[in-house]
């Protein structure tokens, strides 16, 4: 006899349908399911749920590319301050970047995944993937895989390092340090770009995907040539190919918090970050002004993604979440999913900040399918609230 997975936590009045939807989803999952769901509306936490044996609201999970949301919130703050200028050439901040025909690329195009630097010819070691400065040094010498600015493709493992090197050159501080000082620590966020050893006991290691036979057939049918742009972008082509599912289980990755994929946090931490960004929390002023939100949320790259080989769209560093994932959201929604099924976003027009984490890697990668149901239910409750 299997034991029912219990949903724990709280919802605000009017958000009871969210608990019901989460419970209905969890009831159909494996017995070892673990996940968290959190949402804010206009700066007030209205959903705080979790499920699974061993899971709590304070458990910490790998958030994979949802890390990019935190990284590019740093970039947005620095643009807002005037420290960075979007239409300056990257070489204004980072002269060595000019090598191999990259000298004309602007910061705007770099943030929009248009640099053509999805990886290197020979790949990265684990130590390099954990160290954004080492990634940046390798990429400064790399010839682009397409003419910079003419097309776009998902810079899956390196966009945070590219952004981070510009941040470091402009401020003298690493992106992780700026994030800690200006965003995480002041707001007490449970979302780390560099997990302190003291918090290691709260980390729940990633469990691998368990695809059905039909799902495995789809995975097997995907192009896997070692020299494709997809393989290069996900570092599958070198002598030390990356196993994405196990990457955050390496302490080196968690400790150094590479800004593309190394974030560790909870749904509470992700949702609170986006709430702080668009609405402010606990009476604070929102982190981003309306014009900065509009600039970073505006679609800059849309169409055929050369890496994903599918339709994708990006703002500046953030995914255009309403186009890529959830069409029922506001057009200016900013956010970023994670390869294991994590989703996180802020819809400024509706005032919604949303985050979902899960422990087992979901098929097929990217925001797990349950996010459609959960996010839509939260939106409906928020729009119906008095």
From TrEMBL:
UniProt name for this protein: Beta-lactamase family protein
SUPFAM superfamilies per the UniProt record, alphabetical: beta-lactamase/transpeptidase-like
Organism in which the protein naturally occurs: Streptomyces tricolor
Source taxon at top rank: Bacteria
Classification lineage: Bacteria, Bacillati, Actinomycetota, Actinomycetes, Kitasatosporales
Listed InterPro entries: Beta-lactam-related, Beta-lactam/transpept-like, Beta-lactamase/esterase
Ranges where the Beta-lactamase-related domain occurs: 36-372
């Amino acid at each position: 006899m299997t034991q029912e997975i219990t949903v724990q936590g709280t919802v605000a009045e009017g958000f009871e349908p969210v608990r019901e939807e989460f419970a209905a989803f969890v009831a159909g999952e494996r017995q070892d399911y673990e996940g968290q769901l959190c949402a804010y509306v206009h700066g007030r936490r209205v959903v705080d749920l979790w499920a699974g044996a061993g899971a709590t609201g304070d458990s910490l999970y790998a958030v994979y590319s949802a890390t990019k949301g935190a990284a590019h919130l740093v970039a947005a703050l620095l643009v807002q301050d005037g420290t960075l200028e979007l239409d300056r050439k990257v070489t204004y901040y980072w002269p060595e970047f000019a090598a191999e025909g990259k000298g004309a690329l602007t910061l705007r195009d770099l943030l929009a995944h248009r640099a053509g630097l999805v990886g290197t010819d020979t790949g990265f070691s684990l130590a390099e993937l954990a160290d954004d400065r080492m990634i940046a040094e390798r990429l400064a010498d790399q010839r682009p895989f397409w003419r910079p600015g003419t097309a776009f493709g998902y810079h899956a493992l390196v966009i945070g390092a590219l952004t981070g090197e510009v941040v470091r050159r402009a401020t003298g501080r690493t992106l992780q340090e700026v994030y800690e000082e200006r965003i995480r620590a002041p707001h007490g966020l449970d979302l780390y770009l560099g997990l302190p050893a003291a918090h290691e006991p709260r980390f729940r290691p990633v469990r691998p995907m368990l695809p059905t036979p039909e799902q495995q057939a789809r995975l097997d049918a995907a192009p896997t040539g070692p020299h494709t742009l997809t393989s290069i972008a996900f570092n599958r082509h070198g002598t030390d190919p990356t196993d994405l599912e196990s990457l955050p289980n390496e302490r080196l990755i968690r400790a150094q918090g590479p800004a593309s994929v190394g974030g560790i946090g909870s749904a509470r931490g992700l949702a609170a970050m986006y709430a702080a960004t668009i609405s402010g929390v606990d009476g604070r002023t929102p982190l981003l002004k309306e014009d900065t939100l509009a600039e970073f949320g505006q679609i800059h790259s849309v169409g055929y993604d050369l890496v994903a080989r599918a339709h994708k769209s990006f703002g500046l560093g953030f995914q255009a979440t309403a186009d890529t994932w959830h069409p029922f959201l506001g057009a200016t929604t900013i956010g970023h999913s994670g390869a294991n099924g994590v989703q996180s976003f802020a819809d400024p027009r509706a005032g919604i900040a949303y985050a979902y984490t899960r422990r087992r890697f979901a098929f097929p990668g990217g925001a797990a399918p349950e996010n459609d149901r959960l996010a839509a239910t939260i939106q409906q409750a928020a729009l119906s609230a008095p």
